[in-house]
Design brief:
This protein is mostly helical. It is built from two helices and no strands. It holds the Pfam family DUF7536.
């Protein structure tokens, strides 16, 4: 379980960092739309979205790895 959570955290953090860098530094070109981000600015807003993306991805990966481990263990016991 601990290994699955660690793997999920690494995958989630990596994905969030890549998406954040691409969006904030416009690595794929400039954003055509103009928006205003009143409180945090665009960097703060996308940092919060990156946190949500990292958390959700980590949870998804850890859950998937745990389910796969549980299925393998159940098949081995039968």
């Amino acid at each position: 379980m601990r290994r699955n959570a660690l793997a999920g955290g690494v995958v989630g953090l990596t994905l969030a960092v890549v998406v954040y860098l691409v969006r904030v530094f416009e690595l794929l070109g400039p954003n055509l739309g103009t928006r205003e981000y009143p409180v945090l600015g665009p960097e703060g807003y996308f940092l919060l979205l990156g946190f949500v993306l990292a958390s959700a991805t980590a949870l998804l990966v850890a859950t998937a790895l745990t389910v796969v481990s549980a299925v393998r263990l159940a098949r081995r016991e039968v």
